[in-house]
Structures are given as C-alpha cells and as structure tokens.
Amino acid sequence: MKQVNNELNEKLSIGNSQTEIFDFLLATEVSSVHDSFHGCVVQICPVMPQSEMFRMLKQRTVIGRELACDIVLNDNAVSRRHAAIDLSDMNYFVTDLGSRNGTFVDDKLLQERRSLKGGEQIRLGGTILKFMESVDKEASYHDVVNNLMARDPLTNAFNRSYMTSTLEKLLASLPFSKQNLALIMIDIDHFKKVNDTNGHLVGDEVLRVFSERIRYILRETDALCRVGGEEFVVICEQTVLQDAVRIAERIRLTVSATPLSTQSGPVSVTCSLGVMTLDQANFATVEDLLCGADERLYLAKASGRNCVRSALHQ
Fold first, then answer.
1. How far from 203 is each of 126, 154, 208, 257, CA to CA, in Å?
2. What is the pLDDT of residue 177?
3. Continuous H helices in the chain
4. Regions in the chain scoring below 50 on pLDDT
C-alpha cells in the first residue's frame, strides 16, 4: 500500500511539474507577444549622434518640453506638454494636447485624435519623430538609423553624399549597361524672401512640404536629393531628355498649383529647373554632370524663373 502511495505521489509530482513548466512557457510566450507589440518612436530630425528609440510602455506616452513628460524634447518650438500617444484596444493613437505650434502627422496638421499604423512622421515644432509598430522593433530601429545616414534630416530627401555615391556608381556602369541617365536640378525661387517674411522655422516647413510634394509624384526609380539650402536634384535612371523634361514640368506645376501648408498659414512658392542628360554630352565626372544641370538651372532663372530649361529650349 505504501509503495502504491509513493508511486501515486511521484506521478502527481511529475504532473505538477509539467503543469508549472507549461504555465511558465505560456506566460513567457504571452509576455513576449505583449512586449513585441509595444510601439516606439525614433527621433529623425534633428539627427542626434545616437538616435534613441523610445518605447511606448504605458497606456499614454506624453511628449513635450517639460521634464515630467515621458519623452522630453529640447526644442523651444515644442510646448511643455505638446502631444500624447495612447494605446487603446491594441491600437495606437496620437493626440495634440493644445500645443502652441500644433502637431503634424506626415505634414498634415492634427485636428483630432488619429490612428497610427506604423511609419508615420510626427512633427512637433522643429522635431520629427518616426513611429514604428513592428514585431521586430530592433530590426526596424537599425533600418531607420541606417537610412538616416543617407537622408537629409530636415526634408527626408537623400543627402548630397548619397547623391554623389549613386551618380558615381551609375556613371561607372553606363558604358556597359548603355542606359540613359537624366539629372533635374531644382531651386526654390526667392526662398530668402520666404525666410525673411515668415522666419526660419516656417522656412524649414516650406522645405519639408516642398520635398514631400515632389516625392509624391516621382517614379519609384527616381531619387530626390537635397544638395544644400533650397537646392535639390532628382536622379532619373533610364530616362531620355524628353521624358526628363516632362517630369520637370510636372514638378514645376505641382509645386506652383497650390500653396504649401505651414503653421503660419499657406505659403506660395515656385521653382526653377534645369535638365541635363548623358546623351547630350560625354561627362567624365559627377561634377561635370552637375555643372551641366546647374547651367540649365541658371538659364531658367535668367528666363524669369518658374520654368524648365534644357537642350530642348535652345
């Protein structure tokens, strides 16, 4: 009888252990799924030496200049309690908290609570945060940081370094691939007046919205790069002169059609564009190609601005 009881107790002990292990694994899996659901934001403008990832670990994450906020931004254009990101029913929402300068999501002024799906850019004052909702946040974080190295922090266009390295690779491969390459150089007309009239903060908004508006109409194979100041370049692979001019005209009309939205109200701008392609001359270096496009841009400005100039206009 004693032996039977011992065997029974042993089986019960094994059963309890298996139950405890199962409960532990289940709890770990649930915890892992819950942790992986936490969204996060990464500051992409201005670029920091070490871009930090802020995890959304609470039901409400308050963003502002005040030290008591969950995410503190050292930006005078940001209100003390500027905006909040809420987690509700496994969904994230962003809300403006009555800030002085407003909250913008993908360059659209936030009028009411808005759902976040992942990838949105949230602008508060002069600071831009990118929201990520991903199972593998670490991979997303590293993708964002690596992408920052090739991007202009203000406009999110590719930077000059990316443009130069891309053109060098394309120029090196063109003799073998026999593909066409076009360059469109763009300059915002009278941009200094925009800054002088509205201030540099609004000027920065104009650059951001200008860049976003152009990117929206470009092809997937085109690359918008910011060369510096109010000057941009579009790299158009496999594009002949006539098609490049059509793209440039589409950019010009898109920019001038409606004013750009800023926190100080709509701002109307125009741009001048110069187009250069490799079938017009033999360019030995990237600088040769850029100089050719710059000469066409100068002709556009000399012709009264808000126009496109290329070899077709001679």
1. 11, 11, 9, 19
2. 65
3. 2-37, 137-148, 160-177, 191-198, 200-217, 241-257, 286-302
4. 1-15, 17-36, 135
Does the pTM surpass 0.85? The reply is no
Query: Quick one: tokens of 96?
Result: 């403006």
Residue 36, burial from CB neighbour count under 10 angstroms (0-12, 13-18, 19+): exposed
Structure-token match 């913008």, residue found? 104
CB 45 within 8 A of CB 154: yes
CA distances from 126 to 105, 154, 200, 242 (A): 13, 9, 10, 39
Which structure tokens are listed for 168?
A: 């060098």
Q: How far apart, in whole angstroms, are the C-alpha atoms of residue 233 and residue 255? A: 15
Name the token pair of 303.
């012709």
Residue 270 φ then ψ, to 5° = -130, 175
User: What residues are annotated to the active site?
Assistant: 230
Residue 274: name the closest of 292, 258, 255 by CA: 292
Q: What was the pLDDT predicted at 25?
A: 38
Q: Which two tokens stand for residue 51?
A: 């871009």
Q: Do 186 and 271 form a contact (C-beta atoms < 8 A)? A: yes
Contact 39, 133 (CB under 8 A): yes
